[in-house]
Write the structure tokens for this entry.
Amino acid sequence: MADMVLVLCILMSAYFIRGITGFGSALIAVPMLALSQPLQFAVPLVLALDFTASLILGGTNTKKANWLRSRYCCPSECWALAPAPTAC
């Protein structure tokens, strides 16, 4: 039981850091989990949690993106057909 509480505390602190910075949950979680859990448990657990968190964050942020302005980030001929962005 104490082992699961330790795992939950490590994961909560790692994903708190990810929430603040946008990355780093695996950098924090895997080494700390490896101290008390085998790597065959720690790595797939963090991978599944990171994948799920990325899907959720990507889904919510996709709705908020200004796709007209993204053509400046990726210059190619496919964006030539998009209308020019208006004033902010």
